[in-house]
Design goal:
single chain; mainly alpha; 4 helices; elongated; membrane
């Protein structure tokens, strides 16, 4: 059984699939970062952007592994899909960092909601 990591001409950079990968990883990063920022544990709150990014990259890697092993209807894993995943994570991390730094300047002395997780 021969396995290949696709990245050639049958996988264009500007395909709708790449946009879906960016949006998917962006959304997962935002969701898990927001969830971690509401935790009662200060470690999770401090590292919420990293946590969201790690969950998103893990989800993207799992999707590519599923593509490679035939779990999803696909031609196999794609390096370009992985790059699109990483772009979504980087965009989310930048947005979260800018939002967090802007919010920390304006929220001096106010309390925030914390989830019991």
């Amino acid at each position: 059984m021969e396995t290949q990591f696709h990245g050639g001409g049958d996988d264009p950079w500007l395909a709708p699939d790449k946009f879906y990968h960016v949006i998917f990883c962006f959304s997962i990063s935002i969701f898990f970062s927001a969830l971690a920022s509401l935790s009662r544990y200060s470690f999770l709150r401090r590292h919420s952007i990293w946590i969201g990014s790690a969950f998103s990259l893990a989800a993207g890697a799992a999707k590519e592994a599923g593509d490679q092993f035939g779990i999803f209807p696909s031609a196999g894993a794609s390096a370009r899909d992985a790059v699109a995943d990483a772009i979504g994570v980087v965009i989310a991390a930048l947005v979260l960092f800018l939002w967090k730094s802007r919010r920390s300047r304006s929220d001096s002395g106010q309390t925030r909601p914390i989830l019991p997780i």
